[in-house]
Recover the amino acids of this structure.
């Protein structure tokens, strides 16, 4: 999996009557089949180039990361079920469309996941959002749950799990574990992130093969400090300017 | 020749068409054929004559008498005085600079601006300040006249300028009458002494008239007396009207009103164009896009839902439309110190133009995708009686106003749907007139009617990109109930419209 692997064949010139997801399921045999990436277009690559650049201002970082987050959420929603629905148009004719099915909620992994909530809200009005705080336990070096707060009926909802960076996959695996404890089936969780390392995707996908992972870009890998290379630095820090 | 200030008072202003302004009476009908090309140039009239001979009066009388001509510009030679050096400026302030010599006028620029306007292009004419005796840094943007009247003492002097006129008029006036008018005007309006006026007259104005201005009368098609000229003006206007009528009769059947070319469903021998022929860029038909379209098409959709889902859909549309922009490789360093080989947008200017009213529905989505983008607007309405599209207002972003930057600008045209395609056709033509390249225009709409004007558009403008969320199959003739409106529709009459099926209704209404 090399970093610069855009797929230029993104122009769709025909309508397709059956619903289809925009995601091209990843072709890499080494990655789990539940991993989906956004169409790797030139303009998406240009968005990533802006937010990766360490010289990018905070205003630009906010604007362009929001654009990617919206695309990711839109893509995640495409994995939710729809049902046939017939409506009447203002001209009085019948139109066979589809209706959205199932309630959703967002769960952001603190802190950086919170940065994705605004993008989620732009796509899903008044969506309920739960929070989860996971940090590395200094004694065991394992991820540990520090705090969680979910909507009471979370077990009945589809969950969009938000975390911008997937490095080793430790906190994401822990977060799914917590959600399953709260009664959410693994297949009703959709994990959304901006940049993923192949190592993290492999760990996560092996552990939860039925949870879908939507990622914008798969990077080269991790360095010795477990930072994603080339990555974009600490997402939360760049977003909140701390 | 100085511009006389327009006297105060509302009534007078109504009867005194401003110079260097596009005067609009009832909108501009199509000036192009179904092939997208111009069907004729603007009609250009040159009016020359001595200072205070009554040129401006003649020009204004023509405009007033023509009345129903949609768009007229009176272009004044005064705008084209040259930029003065500091030495000339000192002379000018001492009333010692000869403004009545042909060399005082920037003739090449006058010719270039008039030629652009004649070819239906935009022009940014210089602005000259008589208070400062200097050409200012700003320019004035002009576009879209059907009739252009160029007036000034040297209007018939330059051969290149004369070649542009369809009609050349010389206003002939006795020298003593011109001097009398000049003294009266300058004393009253500029508070100057008779002595100074006479000095200037004898030193510059009179020799200039005798040497340069009067001889140009031999180039005129018609010589008009400087006073009591109502009959002459009537004759001129009759001629102009006939000329314009001949042009419009000649080109009437070629005028582009795309829905006139739409084949009716019954008895049509040519099959509707296939989607491949139309070469549209259609948003991938994902479950979410289908669901959004279902909500928007529902007649029971609340206004709140409509606005929310319109924003969501237009954001997706523009994200998809951006693939038509060019990208080049770029390498950046990430905060972890690693090189990242990516891409960068390679477009010097990007702007948008909303086709009012329903194009405004796409604007928020556009702004979510392109940061701080300038967005202009075009107001195009169809004429209640003829059904022709009429251009009522052109407000374009600054990069499009100047020809040199328009050539490097990518323009997104925003409209809710392409049905008959009449407004789309006109707006693309307006951008091309300004020098925007055809392949730099991206038209973004929610819906396109396959059987509608899109095939005429596609044929006329093969390089324009069309991006839409869905393609509807049919166009049906419908009747829009008229809403009584004191100004635009006093009788509350309805009109025949083309409606898309299944469509989304009148998007601008929501």
């Amino acid at each position: 999996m090399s970093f610069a692997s855009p797929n230029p064949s993104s122009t769709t010139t025909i309508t397709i009557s059956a619903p289809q997801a925009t995601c091209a399921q990843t072709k890499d045999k080494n990655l789990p089949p539940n991993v989906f990436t956004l169409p790797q277009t030139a303009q998406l690559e240009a968005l990533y180039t802006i937010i990766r650049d360490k010289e990018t201002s905070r205003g630009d970082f906010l604007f362009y990361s929001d654009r990617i987050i919206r695309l990711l959420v839109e893509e995640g929603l495409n994995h939710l079920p729809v049902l046939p629905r017939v409506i009447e148009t203002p001209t009085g004719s019948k139109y066979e469309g589809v209706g959205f099915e199932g309630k959703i909620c967002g769960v952001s992994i603190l802190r950086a996941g919170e940065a994705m909530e605004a993008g989620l809200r732009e796509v899903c009005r008044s969506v309920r959002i739960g929070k989860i705080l996971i940090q590395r336990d200094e004694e065991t070096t394992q991820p540990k749950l520090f705090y969680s707060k979910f909507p009471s009926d979370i077990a009945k909802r589809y969950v969009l799990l938000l975390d911008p960076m997937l490095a080793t996959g430790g906190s994401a695996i822990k977060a799914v574990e917590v959600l399953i404890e709260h009664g959410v089936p693994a297949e009703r969780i959709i994990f959304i992130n901006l940049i993923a390392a192949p190592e993290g995707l492999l760990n996560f996908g092996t552990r939860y093969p039925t949870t879908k992972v939507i990622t914008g870009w798969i990077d080269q890998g991790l360095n010795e400090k477990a930072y994603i290379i080339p990555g974009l630095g600490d997402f939360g820090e760049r977003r909140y300017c701390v | 020749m100085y511009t006389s200030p327009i006297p105060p008072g509302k009534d007078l202003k109504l009867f005194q068409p401003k110079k260097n302004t596009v005067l609009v009476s009832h909108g501009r009908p199509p000036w192009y054929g179904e092939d997208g090309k111009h069907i004729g140039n603007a009609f250009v009239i040159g009016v020359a004559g001595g200072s205070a001979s009554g040129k401006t009066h003649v020009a204004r009388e023509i405009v007033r008498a023509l009345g129903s001509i949609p768009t007229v510009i009176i272009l004044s030679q005064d705008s084209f005085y040259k930029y003065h050096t500091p030495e000339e400026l000192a002379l000018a302030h001492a009333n010692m600079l000869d403004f009545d010599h042909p060399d005082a006028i920037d003739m090449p620029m006058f010719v270039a601006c008039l030629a652009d306007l004649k070819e239906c292009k935009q022009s940014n004419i210089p602005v000259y300040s008589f208070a400062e005796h200097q050409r200012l840094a700003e320019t004035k943007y002009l576009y879209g006249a059907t009739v252009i009247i160029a007036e000034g003492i040297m209007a018939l002097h330059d051969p290149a300028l004369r070649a542009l006129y369809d009609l050349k008029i010389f206003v002939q006036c006795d020298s003593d009458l011109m001097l009398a008018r000049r003294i009266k005007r300058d004393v009253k309006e500029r508070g100057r002494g008779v002595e100074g006026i006479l000095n200037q007259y004898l030193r510059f104005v009179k020799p200039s008239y005798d040497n340069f201005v009067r001889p140009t009368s031999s180039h005129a098609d018609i010589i008009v007396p400087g006073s009591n000229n109502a009959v002459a003006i009537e004759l001129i206007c009759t001629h102009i009207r006939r000329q314009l009528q001949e042009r419009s009769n000649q080109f009437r059947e070629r005028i582009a009103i795309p829905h006139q070319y739409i084949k009716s469903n019954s008895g049509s021998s040519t099959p509707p164009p296939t989607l491949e022929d139309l070469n549209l860029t259609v948003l991938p038909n994902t479950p979410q896009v289908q669901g959004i379209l279902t909500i928007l098409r529902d007649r029971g959709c609340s206004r709140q839902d409509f606005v929310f889902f319109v924003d969501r859909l237009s954001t997706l549309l523009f994200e998809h439309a951006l693939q038509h922009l060019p990208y080049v490789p770029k390498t950046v360093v990430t905060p972890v110190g690693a090189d990242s080989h990516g891409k960068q947008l390679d477009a010097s200017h990007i702007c948008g133009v909303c086709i009012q009213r329903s194009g405004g529905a796409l604007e928020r989505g556009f702004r979510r995708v392109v940061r701080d983008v300038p967005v202009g607007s075009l107001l195009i309405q169809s004429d209640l009686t003829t059904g022709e599209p009429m251009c009522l207002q052109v407000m374009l972003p600054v990069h499009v106003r100047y020809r040199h930057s328009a050539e490097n600008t990518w323009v997104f045209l925003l409209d809710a749907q392409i049905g008959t395609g009449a407004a789309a056709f006109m707006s693309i033509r307006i951008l091309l007139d300004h020098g925007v390249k055809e392949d730099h225009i991206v038209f973004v709409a929610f819906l396109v009617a396959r059987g509608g004007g899109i095939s005429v558009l596609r044929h006329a403008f093969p390089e324009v990109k069309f991006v839409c969320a869905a393609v509807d199959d049919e166009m049906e003739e419908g009747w829009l109930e008229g809403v009584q409106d004191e100004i635009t529709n006093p009788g509350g009459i309805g009109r025949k419209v083309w409606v898309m099926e299944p469509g989304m209704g009148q998007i601008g209404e929501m």
Notes: Residues 1-26 of chain A have pLDDT under 50 and may be disordered.
